[in-house]
Amino acid sequence: MRRIALALVVVLALVLPGLAVESRSGLEYGNSEPYNKNVDIIGGRLPLTPGGGASNSAIFCGQLANAGTIYLGPANVADATGENGEGANAQASAGGTVCNALDSATEATADAPLYTNLRVRVTGMYCKAVADAGTTGSGTNGAVFTLRSAAADTAPVLTCTVPTTGIECQATPATANIPVIAAGATMAVKAVSTEDLSAMDGWCRVFYSVNQ
């Protein structure tokens, strides 16, 4: 039976090449060292589920632009170690005082790292474009949100479009590859509009896991 289980593990490892990302992914160890090593290989290649049990999240928010591009910065609060982690400020709601201070037309002003010493593996993104009251959508032309790191689009690109008069959109990686943000690298969300949405707020929640 152990040989059958080991063969199944090896087959799965061969048919799941290059997939990300969480070690073991809940698979149990046995009493065979080769089996355990293969469990680690498969666990390291299984894809993450956005928003699932392995995910953290960070909020990026701010005012939208008047027919142009603006960058939304992270609203998370650093803990005692200097790592931002998942502790999003309670006031980081669309139209809140925290979010209103986080946008900038200059990316280097808005962006910031989520972690100093940990890599971030992004598994999905949810964004919305709303009036402060949250009842009005993105206007007649919509709005496009794109995740950025180190002043460039992530690779692969993670982007979504709030449709005309819509309110929200979501994005997940289009392939088995997912964006990996280097430790200490800055992050922001780029928001692009072709009309005056300066009375609107952009708000995104980015789902991720961390890796040393």
Q: Could you please describe the fold and organization of this structure?
A:
With 212 residues, this protein is α+β, with helices and mostly antiparallel strands. The protein folds into two domains: 2-43, no CATH class; 56-211, Jelly Rolls (Sandwich), CATH 2.60.120. Helix content is 16%, strand content 33%. It contains four helices and twelve strands, in the order H-H-E-E-H-E-H-E-E-E-E-E-E-E-E-E. Strands 1, 2, 3, 4, 5, 6, 7, 8, 9, 10, 11 and 12 form a twelve-stranded antiparallel sheet that branches. Strand 6 and strand 7 (152-153) form a beta hairpin. The longest helix is centred in the first third of the chain and has 14 residues, at 2-15. The two termini are 35 Å apart.
Query: What is the CATH architecture descriptor of the largest domain?
Result: Sandwich
CATH class of the largest domain: Mainly Beta
Give the overall pLDDT as a whole number.
74
Sheet with most strands: 12 strands, antiparallel
Short description:
The chain has 212 residues and is of the alpha+beta class.
